[in-house]
Write a structure and sequence with these properties.
This protein is α/β, with parallel strands linked by helices. The protein has 13 helices and 11 strands. The chain is globular.
């Protein structure tokens, strides 16, 4: 039987969490799937784990790379080998919640104009689980604006129409930003992207996910990608803002409210029919939320907010409060269902641990 969903995964030395990740796919309430795993020249016990799963479940198909191709090329290979109507991403260290594929399949079937969607998620690090994204907008117009200042699409939580993925593919010249490049290229080509506001994945964080070398490459690659994106949707990034854009907007390494206000004024001045001033203001407010999380004082954040249209602020704050309440309620239910208890955090960002 032809699968409805092809789940694609590339793994390199993933023995620590691979079995748990694959079991989470096998435990899905949605049954008509195939899992295509590309073993990218692993040197640990990854091959043995994959062989064991392939022998007991014929929906799992394992392919070995002869040389280490890295993630973008490996994912393109998996896409080419897929047979499903939809392609869903999965990483070798994350966990699909049991109804992930069922809910994402239903969403894509009911929204035929959406090319690609992702989902809400919880993070886990050192046994501590956290929710994120509560209150954020999930619609295409908001995500188009958010892509100007960050990457709001969770890569391992994505599901997309197979014909779209096979037409676009990943840019294999990139080393660590292939997902951002794909999303922005899709938007530039008028492909609709949305987020399903349901918590469907547990995303694993590691202490050393981003090294200083990787971060430097990310800076270079992100700037190259975003120059194309800005140029296509608005206008090219102002030459005087390039350095601050990378360190003070996209990565929030050196937040600076004065420079932020200069950037915000410039960005809102580039508004178009497809990216209105209100939509751009929403994305900028998300940057300020990051500033607050990175230690910028409440007084400084409020000072920056005074530069926004008062009517927009009133409407957005009310919308966010109402949406965040619903999102957190959903997250708490998911946490209880998988055996977690709330131990700390805030109303908007609860923290959980295993019971």
């Amino acid at each position: 039987m032809t699968p409805d969903i092809s789940v694609i995964m590339s793994v390199y030395n993933g023995e620590a969490y691979l079995a748990e990740a694959i079991e989470s796919v096998r435990s899905q309430t949605f049954k008509n799937w195939e899992l295509i795993v590309i073993n990218d020249c692993s040197t640990d016990s990854t091959a043995e784990i994959l062989e064991e799963f392939a022998l007991k479940d014929d929906r799992i198909k394992v392919y070995d790379n002869e040389v280490n191709l890295r993630l973008p090329k490996s994912l393109n290979r998996a896409i080419a080998l897929s047979w499903g109507k939809y392609v869903a991403r999965m990483d070798a260290d994350d966990i699909c919640l049991p109804d992930r594929l069922e809910k994402q399949y239903k969403f894509m079937e009911e929204h035929s104009d959406v090319a690609l969607s992702s989902c809400r998620f919880m993070t886990v690090k050192n046994g501590v689980y956290m929710s994120g994204g509560a209150g954020g907008r999930c619609d295409n117009e908001a995500l188009k604006a958010m892509l100007l200042v960050s990457n709001p699409i969770l890569h391992p939580g994505v599901i997309a129409r197979a014909e779209v993925m096979k037409r676009f593919n990943y840019d294999t010249t990139l080393t660590c930003t292939e997902d951002l490049e794909l999303w922005t290229r899709m938007v530039r080509e008028n492909q609709k992207i949305e987020i399903l506001p349901e918590c469907l994945l547990i995303y694993r964080l590691h202490d050393k996910q981003i090294t200083s070398t990787t971060l430097e490459r990310q800076h270079t690659e992100v700037l190259k990608i975003q120059e194309k994106y800005y140029g296509a949707l608005l206008e090219k990034i102002d030459e005087n803002m390039r350095e601050f854009y990378i360190s003070g907007i996209y990565f929030t390494e050196t937040p600076d409210v004065k420079k932020f206000l200069e950037y915000a004024k410039w960005l809102k001045g580039t508004a178009t029919k497809s990216l209105t001033e209100d939509t751009l203001s929403y994305a900028l407010l998300e940057v300020l939320a990051e500033y607050k999380r990175h230690g910028v004082s409440k007084a400084q954040v409020l000072k920056a907010m005074l530069s926004f249209n008062p009517l927009f602020l009133i409407k957005e704050i009310a919308r966010r409060k109402q949406t965040a309440k619903k999102d957190v309620e959903k997250c708490i239910k998911v946490a209880k269902d998988i055996g977690l208890r709330q131990t700390a955090g805030t109303k908007e960002f609860p923290i959980f641990e295993k019971i």
